[in-house]
Design goal:
Length: 490
């Protein structure tokens, strides 16, 4: 590929030049949702982050196989090994089959992703559809001597593994710290050590989701699905494994151990993690009353919101922060994102209104260079947005006659905006680019501007100023230009 770029590899804790295993091709596996509830704000960030990476890789000419899993079995309530399966619990409470619950919320997730303009992955396997592969993978670990059978369940032997490899290298923890941080829970007597984790769990009599295996009727441990499905679809070695930072321990740490034990080597070369979303400085959680679903954001129905926000506003809000930075949500932050998005879209629209000049006073290649360098530096979407905003200001100056652009440079700017704002950042024009709908208020604004134009023609400056000031008070900035009057949301 012509463009070189870096990714921060969580495993090595440094930015590394990206070099795929196979020239021109990339295999990427990302941990998807556990489908037992409505998609929420916490689902939006990893979805948008890895959609950004997917889009960027494809824009560089790579053929990408992007695998994003669906967890529909084995994700237990208390921790990775104990408690009731979250989907089975939902099914019991609502008197449904577990797969009804999984299907319902998977479809809800898909619809939310479509709204956010997240591209569908190449393959989207679900855990319940790959039980045979997971059983086979567990057997490989047993055969390698890194697991043991206890009362029908199979557990990973962390101490045995740690003698040959190193458990904790992704999260930076050592085994002593893990021992101190591991709770003794009821029902863990089958384990040799409390930090061992389940590869296969024997199902209790009341457990609904269960499958036959050589060891018992049971179900796979939560970590097992990703090891089995990533290697099935991407091979024993692949390029990128991604997910939220909250998955680093224990999920991804255990996954690395499982895969290394079975294969004898690492499976993924680059581990990429997005940081968390906080809400007014607090971790999002139902118990704190700050848990917000995407549907609540789109409709404005949550108590923390003063209005509805469009899906592109949510996407733009996520992209304004670097994916490895904590992103703090607030109603005010979303309002700022809404105005920023509207300004960006309005700047792109203004390009079509500029009268071409014989020579340019601006240099569009500078925008192209800034955007390319920002993306090549560990997907720095905030710097891309900053560059685009700087050029929106220059575009407005060109529209006002203070700068000049040739027809070729105008077309070049349009192409750069399309490539970076639309194709790579994944933004799109909406009927409601600002909450409440810019399109909904456009006829009223245009009517008032027509009245203002008539007042100006009649030299009724008081009426003209009154209309302008009234629009300004409503959050609408009026811009008088040589070729007419324009407006934008502030």
């Amino acid at each position: 590929m012509e463009t070189e770029f870096t990714l921060y590899n969580t495993l090595t804790r440094r930015k590394e030049r990206f070099e795929p295993l196979t020239e021109g091709r990339v295999g990427m596996y990302v941990c998807g949702p556990t489908v037992y509830g409505d998609p929420h704000l916490g689902h939006a960030r990893p979805a948008v982050t890895f959609d950004l990476l997917f889009r960027y890789l494809r824009s560089l000419g790579y053929k990408v196989r992007y695998v994003r899993n669906i967890t529909d079995v084995g994700h237990l309530e208390h921790d990775a090994d104990e408690g009731e399966d979250k989907i089975a619990k939902k099914a019991r409470l609502e008197e449904l089959e577990p797969m009804e619950v999984a299907h319902h919320y998977t479809e809800r997730y898909h619809r939310a992703m479509d709204e956010l303009n997240v591209i569908t992955p190449s393959i989207e396997p679900c855990a319940s559809g790959h039980i045979i592969e997971q059983i086979t993978f567990v057997q490989r670990i047993l055969d390698a001597g890194f697991a043991y059978i206890s009362n029908g369940s199979v557990y990973f032997d962390v101490e045995k593994y740690n003698e040959k490899y190193r458990y904790g290298r992704l999260s930076g923890r050592n085994l002593d710290e893990i021992v101190l941080g591991t709770r003794e829970l009821d029902g863990q007597s089958d384990k040799r050590h409390p930090y061992d984790f389940a590869l296969w769990k024997k199902a209790s009599p009341e457990h609904i989701m269960r499958w036959p295996s050589p060891w018992s009727d049971g179900f796979p441990g939560w970590h097992m699905e990703c090891s089995a499905m990533s290697t099935k679809y991407l091979g024993d070695r692949f390029d990128i494994h991604g997910g939220g930072m909250d998955l680093m321990f224990p999920h991804h740490e255990c996954e690395i151990a499982q895969s290394t034990a079975a294969l004898g080597h690492d499976s993924a070369r680059y581990w990429v993690h997005n940081n968390m979303i906080t809400i007014n400085g607090q971790k999002m959680g139902k118990s704190l009353g700050n848990f917000i679903t995407l549907e609540e954001l789109f409709t404005g129905s949550h108590r923390l919101l003063t209005q509805a926000y469009s899906p592109m506003t949510i996407r733009f809000f996520v992209l304004q922060a670097h994916y490895r930075s904590t992103l703090d949500f607030s109603n005010e932050a979303l309002q700022a994102a809404e105005k920023g998005l509207d300004r960006l879209m309005k700047g792109y629209e203004t390009l079509a209104k500029i009268q071409p000049a014989a020579a340019s006073t601006l240099h569009p290649e500078e925008l192209e260079t800034r955007c390319a360098e920002a993306m090549a530096d560990d997907l720095n979407s905030p710097m891309v947005i900053s560059a685009l905003f700087d050029w929106v200001r220059l575009i407005n100056q060109a529209a006002d006659g203070k700068e000049q652009l040739t027809a070729d440079d105008i077309e070049r700017l349009k192409a750069v905006f399309r490539r970076y704002a639309f194709d790579i950042l994944g933004l799109k024009e909406e009927k409601s680019a600002a909450a409440g709908g810019r399109d909904r208020i456009t006829p009223l604004v245009e009517m008032l501007l027509d009245e203002r134009l008539k007042a100006r023609a009649a030299k009724d400056w008081a009426a003209s100023d009154r209309i302008r000031d009234g629009l300004q008070a409503a959050g609408i900035r009026v811009k008088d230009r040589k070729d007419g009057t324009d407006w934008e949301l502030e």
